[in-house]
Amino acid sequence: MTDTETQPSQGGRRAAFGFIFALAVINAVSFGIMIPILPNLIKQFTGGDTASASEWNVVFAVTWGVMQFFIGPILGMVSDRYGRRPVLLLSLFGLAVDFLFMALAPTLGWLLVGRIFNGLTSASFSTANAYVADITPPEERAKVFGWMGSAFSFGFLIGPVLGGYLGTLSLTMAPVVVAGFTVDMALRLPFFVAAGLTSINFLYGLLVLPESLTPEKRAAAFAWSKANPVGSLRLLRSHPDLLGLATVLFLFQLAHMVLPSIFVLYTGYRYGWSPAFMGMTMGLTGVLGIAVSILLVGPVVKRIGERGALLVGAVFGAAGFAIYAFAPNTAWYLIGTPVFALMGLLMPGLMGLMSRRVPPREQGQLQGANQSVQGISSILGPLMFGLIFAWSVHNERTLHLPGLAIFVAAGLMLLAFLLGLTVAKPPRAVEPAVV
């Protein structure tokens, strides 16, 4: 069976996509709430030392990436064998638990425990992409992946603004007693709100979300030989150009890690931004991301194809990072945001090309492999960018380039463009999977 056969009806596809889109939006909002707050909470635990906070950020992010590297293929294989819905529910439960750890943790060690638990269960966005591939014809996937990208942008529009506001509000709140424990509410309120939203999302998925992968399209058995990073690598090598496209994905994800790794510390250090202003800036980025995902991806893919969208997105990503790296003040940084937003063309084109190369019962395994790739970037990215930023801050008097880490990200996007010129080719017809 190929991925063009046994597609749901048009009405059924729209209803199913509505469910998964709403789930993705709420999940992204919950995630976005923590972005301007968590680094400052870590900084609070380190006594206000920016360099030390950056190094602890590295520890947190690398630990999460290690978990993703090993668990991604397992959860991808589970979704191919038992369906997408159980994996999505597990991921939402793990995220809610992680937010509660952030809200209640008295030490950095307890924060780390929450991150580990989340890393062992996190597969919401990758499984949502497999869900979309299940219900969407191949020729429409790039456009729909663009809509899924807009869900993440909605999260960056609403979440960081809400997080910044709640974080500022929490600084004026008195300690409260939760389950017999006294909790200092400074910087903690956003995590309680995020935990509540994620719990609502879990109940929504439990009661409303339908399964997308019909029994006849599922893998016949759970194969441990495929449910590991080595097995995922075999999948990427088994289809033409898929490994090359995965390398483009790795370069993109590695470059993109620079922002969650150092954005809050970098903009606070270089431009003196408050949490509220950081949230508003992320909100602007979200608005522009939504505009690109909803208004531009479809027409661009229709005009220049998935390959063209990938290449254009890579070029603008490199340019946007370069502007961020060299911007001497807030005004110049904001000038770079619309340029950077056009990088949103890359992922829909890339995911469209990748999903076309595998049949339905391997879509989860593909997304699991992609999650392992993300895990590698989540290990290397914070380590590389966090340490580069810490080094540049320590040596600013001689180096005068606190944006060095972001400049490195621009170089990675340029490499992604050059590789994309070779590997981003129209796919041949997908053959039925042998199970």
Task: Give the class from helix and strand content and strand pairing.
Answer: mainly alpha
Give Rg in angstroms: 21 Å
Mean pLDDT: 82
> Which regions have little confidence, pLDDT < 50, spanning 5+ residues?
1-8, 430-435
Describe the sheet with the most strands.
2 strands, antiparallel
Number of strands: 2
DSSP strand content: under 5%
Rough shape? globular
Write the CATH fold name: Growth Hormone, Chain: A
CATH architectural grouping: Up-down Bundle
Distance between the termini: 11 Å
The total number of structural domains is 1
Order of helices and strands: HHHHHHHEEHHHHHHHHHH
The amount of helix comes to over 70%
* Helical run tally: 17
Quaternary assembly: single chain
Widest sheet, order of strands: 1-2
Provide the CATH superfamily: MFS general substrate transporter like domains
Can you tell me the CATH class? Mainly Alpha
Tell me what the structure shows.
By secondary structure, the protein is an all-alpha fold. The protein has one domain: Growth Hormone, Chain: A, CATH 1.20.1250.20. Helix content is 76%, strand content 1%. It has 17 helices and 2 strands. The chain has a two-stranded antiparallel sheet. A hairpin with a 2-residue loop joins strand 1 and strand 2.
